[in-house]
Design brief:
alpha+beta
C-alpha cells in the first residue's frame, strides 16, 4: 500500500480519538452526573387547597391584614381553662371567641354549613407553625357580607391569637404551611394576602391585587358571542364544505 495514502487515515483516527477523549472528559463535569450517580429527586411544589371548600367559589377572593411588623408578641387569652392533651380540638370554640375581645361579638352565633348565611363556619385544625400541634381556624360570616378569620395557637396549655383579619366573602386556602386569604376588591378584581408563621404570629409575606380587565383586553376571560354562523376551517387535503355549520353553543360564563 502506498504510505502516502495511509497518512489521511492515520490522521483521521488520531483526530477521532482526541474528540472522543474530550467528550468523555466533559461527561464528568461538576454540573452533570458521573457514572453510576442517581438523578436528583424533583420536589413537589405546594398548590392552593381550600380550607372551607364550600366557600372557595363565593368570592373573587381576601382582606386587608393587620401589619405584623413592629408588634409585641401575642398574649394568651384570659378566662380560658388550661388546654389538655387533646389540644385545641378539645376546646370549646365559643369559649375561645368569647375570650378574644376582637371576636367576642361573634362568639354566640350559631354554626353554618354553607355560604349565604350569617354564623360561624365549622372550625378547622391545621398545623401552620410546624410544631405538630394543629392550630384552630375560625371564620364568621356576617349579615353585611363581611367575614372574619381568626387563628389560635396552643402553647404551654394557653391559647394565643396569632392571626385576625377580615374582608368581604373570605375564601381561605393553604399553600404548604401558609394561608392564602382572598376577597373581592371594592374597585373590582381581587386581593390575595399570604400569611406565614414567623415564630410569633402569622405575618403577611405577600399582598397581591388583580384588577379586572375590560372586554377589549385579550387576557379577559369573557368573550363576545359570535354574531353569525361560523364557517369551519377545512382539514388539510379535504374539500371545503358547501354549507356552513351551526354556530357553537355558548359556554357558561364563569363568575369573575
Amino acid at each position: 500500500m502506498n504510505p502516502i495514502s495511509r497518512r489521511p487515515l492515520l490522521l483521521g483516527a488520531a483526530s477521532f480519538a482526541a474528540l472522543a477523549a474530550f467528550a468523555l472528559a466533559g461527561c464528568g463535569g461538576t454540573n452533570g452526573l458521573g457514572h453510576g450517580e442517581a438523578a436528583p429527586t424533583v420536589s413537589v411544589q405546594p398548590h392552593p387547597e381550600a380550607v372551607w371548600p364550600a366557600w372557595a367559589g363565593t368570592s373573587s377572593r381576601a382582606p386587608g391584614a393587620e401589619a405584623a411588623t413592629r408588634q409585641p408578641p401575642p398574649r394568651p387569652l384570659k378566662g380560658l381553662s388550661r388546654v389538655g392533651s387533646g389540644g385545641l380540638a378539645s376546646v370549646d370554640v365559643h369559649a375561645v371567641l368569647r375570650a378574644d375581645p376582637r371576636t367576642k361579638p361573634l362568639a354566640d352565633r350559631g354554626e353554618i354549613d354553607r355560604p349565604g348565611r350569617a354564623g360561624l363556619r365549622p372550625p378547622k385544625f391545621l398545623d401552620l407553625t410546624g410544631d405538630k400541634k394543629p392550630e384552630m381556624l375560625v371564620a364568621a360570616d356576617t349579615e353585611s357580607g363581611r367575614s372574619v378569620l381568626a387563628v389560635y395557637r396552643e402553647q404551654g396549655g394557653k391559647v394565643y391569637p396569632i392571626l385576625f383579619t377580615s374582608g368581604r366573602n373570605l375564601a381561605v386556602e393553604t399553600i404548604g404551611p401558609d394561608l392564602l386569604v382572598r376577597t373581592p376588591c371594592s374597585e373590582g378584581g381581587e386581593q390575595a394576602v399570604r400569611f406565614h408563621w414567623d415564630g410569633a404570629r402569622m405575618s403577611t409575606v405577600s399582598d397581591i391585587k388583580n384588577y379586572k380587565s375590560d372586554k377589549n383586553d385579550k387576557n379577559d376571560r369573557r368573550s363576545d358571542r359570535p354574531a353569525g354562523p361560523v364557517q369551519p376551517q377545512p382539514e388539510r387535503g379535504a374539500s371545503t364544505p358547501s354549507t356552513p355549520s351551526e354556530p357553537p353553543s355558548p359556554s357558561p360564563s364563569s363568575s369573575p
